[in-house]
Amino acid sequence: MGMRAAGVAAATAAVLGGALVATAPAASAAPAAPAAGGTAPACIGRYVTNTPEGFDVHLTNNCGKTMRVQVVVKYAGDSPCYKLAAGASKLYIYEGVLGRYDRTAVC
Fold first, then answer.
1. Is the pLDDT assigned to residue 99 strictly greater than 80?
2. What is the CATH number of the domain that holds 72?
3. SS3 for the chain, per residue?
């Protein structure tokens, strides 16, 4: 029994060790884009218009201070993170078949 238990322990360690190595991030991986945070506050105006090619989102910063926001797209990639000064606006245009407007988030 002692030999069998040692063999099981060694096999388990090998499997777990292999899993840990396989899931470790590569050292040469590119830095990730800023992830979307919580939903942007109400002072960020967002006017969404559906188009035949996708949708447009007109963002307006009515917060009184600089804000960083991005458009979160369901089923496709999100917009870049936009730095909007107080009173500034930005038009994000999505063209694609699958993507749907999900929300506007801070980033």
1. yes
2. 2.60.40
3. CHHHHHHHHHHHHHHHHHHHHHHCCCCCCCCCCCCCCCECCCCEEEEEEEECCEEEEEEEECCCCCEEEEEEEECCCCCCCEEECCCCEEEEEEECCCCEEEEEEEC
